[in-house]
Structure formats: structure tokens, C-alpha cells
Prior knowledge:
The complex is a heterodimer.
Chain A: E1 4-15, E2 19-30, E3 34-38, H1 45-52, E4 60-65, E5 68-69, H2 74-80, E6 81-84, H3 96-106, H4 111-124, H5 140-151, E7 158-162, H6 170-187, E8 190-195, H7 198-204, E9 207-212, E10 215-220, H8 222-227, E11 232-238, H9 245-250, E12 254-260, E13 263-268, H10 271-284, E14 289-295, H11 299-307, H12 311-315, H13 318-332
Parallel strand pairs in A: 3-8, 3-9, 6-7, 7-8
Antiparallel strand pairs in A: 1-2, 1-4, 4-5, 9-10, 11-13, 11-14, 12-13
Helix pairs in contact in A: 3-4, 3-5
Chain B: H1 15-27, H2 30-49, H3 53-58, H4 65-77, H5 85-108, H6 113-142, H7 145-150, H8 156-185, H9 196-220, H10 227-242, H11 255-263, H12 265-277, H13 283-312
Amino acid sequence: MSEEVIKAEGLTKVFNKHLTAVDHVDFSVKQGEIFGFLGPNGAGKTTTINMLITILKPTEGKASVLGFDIAKQDYAVRNVVGVVPQEYTADEDLTGLENILLCADLYGIPRNVAKDRAVDLLKLVELTDFKDKKVQIFSGGMRRRLELACGLVNRPKVLFLDEPTLGLDVQTRTATWNYIRKLKKEYGMTLFMTTHYLEEADALCDRVAIIDHGKIVVVGPPEELKHSLGGDLITLSIKEDADVSELIQKSEHVKDVKKEGGSYRIKAEYGEMTAPFIIEALRKKGYTVTKLSLTEPTLNEVYLEYTGKSMRDAEESREAFAAQRMTMRRARQ
Amino acid sequence: MSETNGNSKNKLHGLWALTNRELKKWYKAPVIFLLSIIQPILWMGLLGKAMNIGAIFTGTSFMTSDLVGRLQQSLLQHGMPSQNIPSFFGDLGNIFSGLGSSVMTDVFNTTDYFSYMAVGMIAFTALFTTMFSGMSVVWDRRLGFLNKVLSTPVSRAVIIFSKVLSATLRSMFQAGLIILIAVAFGLQFGANFTVLNILGVFAIMFLVCVGLSSIFIAITIRSTRIETPMAVVNLINLPLMFASNAFFPTKFMPDWLQSIAKVNPLTYTTDAVRQLLIFNTDWTTLAGDFAYVGVFAVVAASIGIVLSWRFLSK
């Protein structure tokens, strides 16, 4: 099998003949990486996932998952992928364990195998104590973990996560990230996830595709995308009055130095590594650094650079708000 | 890591899991379970016992000897010859007192309206229970469960089948319950009733429920709002119920209503159940009923499944 676990070529979905949700996207996901689709709500992330997991048929283009064509070999694809949907789909009237066993039945997993796996999965997502409680009483974070367990019941090689931390508080979000990292590290799983949280894409993904209006605007590792903007911004001041611009300029990775008032604005790649070198260089010449701050470009700046608008602004469409509220309400119930 | 080879390759895998999920919602929720039992009792009490049609003919004064006595006196006053009168009026009295039950037999094919109506309740339950199968599809869609199931290797047809099957099993259970309750309330079985006939009732219930729930699912599978199936259900449930022989024989209905009743599968279901339980079974009519409902079930299920399949694999 090739290194490319997911491969999409010109993948397109048009709803009702005029609403283009996904517009000729090309990308590939490598074995064992976490690949993120980053974009505001309505950008086409979920539509892309739904095509890859064979719920929606592409209007145009093609894609394959583990070598199976999503349109022609949809049954084979469904067998080998796991899906953690955006919504809380677990049945509230059933218990946690019953929900996992229901999912196992849907994959045709024999009951004795399913029971063993359910025990393992409940342990993995730390819900063992709640396995016989109805999902009704579960909190949002617990439900999200239960969804994760259900998505893993068929031991998928590829796991699709649609907005895995939508509506979760910071603590629960961090915990969820840890589960996701664990899946990659311990099981060598390939993960495809969508998110509209920049921090999440930054923290988790090996590679990110920024998607806007159904088109991929840029693909790459988060670090690389950020560096492509020209690096970090280091601001420093020294005790002495002398102009040290030239001295700073000589340090490695420094691209540009400007003296503004009493401080220097330095554009540098790998700012967190460059800053100590600059300090060291200045100290050797007898200067004392009094203040230093380091600003790293965030994915928001990357997003801004490529789409021409801030991600937060793009978020504020009414429809997106309504969709989010719906999920949040369910999360709280 | 993937062990799909050990998994079931059966095309119907997941059918029972999905059906049982629906059933658990019902039998594991005591309140809902209780309500679904109380409902037919209420209807039987309200319609069966309150509309005591038999009593109109047997319990009212114009049928009693009181009436005959007054007639006798009136004839005597008009100077009729009196020697044959007592025996003549004796006959007349007998004819009148038999009139009530013969009217009942002629209209309802049984002397007991409660039995007639209680059996009609069985078809009624089939209609009501299956209607809600459509709604559960809408819920599954709204909650994302439908998409989740669609992403698993479960066949599309199984998803629909499970809805049909759970509604059918529920209705059949309720039908059995109605028979028990009706017997407790005084249902009079037909002359050649045997326990085997109960199996016949379950068979016809199975057929009609498969047909009805397929239709309701086909109607609602496209809708994303819970209001749509509600409106559809409200629009058609009572007309469908009253344009059948569930409460009253069709032969006294106006022509236009009769023509609706004639194609209404509920008419045939109710007739079949009556033939099996309370009438002197007419095997030809019964076979006709089964044939009609059977064809209805097959056609409706095919339409339902084809439409749903097309919609689910968009």
C-alpha cells in the first residue's frame, strides 16, 4: 500500500445544482499523521469528511481511502474507517456500554469480541465507572469521549474526527487532545480532523489545510505556514544608548531589524531559538538587555494572509452561530 | 490492526441491533410503556362502552312488552274481535324482542357492539404505532445518529427495515394486549374460534404494519423538521380510521366514503381480525382480506425501501 492513506483529486460537492460546498480540492494524507482541515463554519469541512466517509457522493472528482475508491468501493471504506461525528450521536436512552456494543453490532463484530473491546475502549476514554449509566446524565466531555470510543470500536486504520472539541471547556479540550495524540502515538493511526479552532490545529496537526469557501488555500505543517509569513517578532531594549542594529543583524536567522524609539523590532525565523543568541551576542559586547518580548505569528495571521480576512470575523455569520448553538444546547442537556 | 475479516459479512447484520435500540426506548421506559397500554384501554372504554349501540334496540321502551300492551289496548278500544288477540300479541311481542338482535346481527354481524368495536381497535393501534416510526427517522437525522449509522457498513435497507420491524413488533404486542383486555371487558368470541386464530391476527397485523410503516417512513425520510411528519400524521390518521369499518360497517356509508373504505387496507385488516375472532369465520372473505393486505404490504414496503434507499445514498 502506498504511503498516502487518503488521496483526493478535484473532489467537488455541489448541493442543489448551485451551492458549491467543496470546490475541486486536492490533498493527500500520509500514513500515521494527523491532518487537519482548518476553516470557519460553512467552509466545506464537514462536507469533505462526509464524502470521504461515503455518506455523500461527490459531484465531481475522486478520492480514495486506504486505496479504496470512495464512490465505487464505499462498503470497503466504511469497514476500515472510524468516524467521530460533530454531533453527540450516542443514544441517550442507552447506557455507555450499550452504545458501544450497538456500534460494534453495526460493524458486524461478534458479541464476545465486542465485549472485550468495549472494556478496553471504556478504559481508554476513562468511562469505565459510567459504563452502566444512561448517556442522559453524561456531561459534554463524557459524551465526546464516548463518541470517540464508538468511533474506535472497529479498530479503524483511519479515524475521521469532525470538530472533536466543539463546545468543550478548556480542560476537557486538552484531555481530548491527549487522547488524539495517544491514538497516533500508540496505535500508529492516521487521523483526519476538522476544526475551526486555530489553537487546536496548531497543537495537534502535523499538517494543516486551510479551507475557505470550499477551496483549499494552503497546505503545510503549522510551523512552516507560520514561518512562511516571515518569522517571529522579537522586541528588545538595551540599557545603553548605542545603536546595535548591525550587531543584531549579524545573528543567524535574523531577517530585519528596525530601531523604533528606545527598542528594536527584530523579524527573525525561529524566534525562540534566535532570541538567546542575540542576547548572548549583545552581552559579549558589553550591552545589557533590559526587556525582551517574543511574538510568534499564530495561524490566525496565516489565515489572514491567505484569505484576506480574520478567522474570527469569518466565524460571525448567523448560520454558523445557529449551528454552534444547536450543538452546544445538546451538549448541555 | 484492523480485523474486519472476523466481522460478519451477513447483509442483514445490525438489523436486530437497530431494531432492539428502538424497542429498548419503549420497554425500558416505564412511563411510555404504561401509556401505550393505557391508550387502547381508554379508547375501548370511551368508544366501545360509551357508544352502547346494542342497548338502543334492546334496552329502550319501544321494544318491550309495554309497547305491545298499549297496542293491544288500543285495538280493544276500537272494538276488534278479541278471541285471537292474546296469541297474536304474544307472537308480536316475540318478534319485537327478537328485532333488536336481528338488527344488530344484520348491521354488525354480531349482537355485541363492544366486541365489534374492540376488534376495530386493533387496526387502530397498528395505524397509530406505525405513524410514529416515521418520526423516529426524523429524530435520528436531527441528532446525527442517521449519519453515524450511514458511515458504518450496515446496509441502507437494514436501516429502514429496523424502523419497520420495531414498529411492527410494537403493534403486534399491543394487539395481543388489546385482545386480553377486551376479553376481560367481555369480548364474545365467534362460534368457531380457536387459539390458532390468534396467530392469524398476528399475521395480518404483521402485514399491515409493515405496509403502513414503510409508507410513513417514505413520507418522512426527506424531512429534517419534526413538524412535517406531525402534520402528515394529523392530516391522515382520523380520516383513514373513520373511512374504514373499524367503528361502523361500510355498507351504510355514503358512496364516496365507501369507495375510500374499499381501498383502505385498515378495512381489510379489521375485517380479517373480526372474521378470526368474533364472526362465524367466512374463509373465502378471510383469504381475500389476507391477499389484499399482503399485496399492500409488499407494494408499500418496496416503494418505501426504494425511495429511502435512493435518498439515503445521495
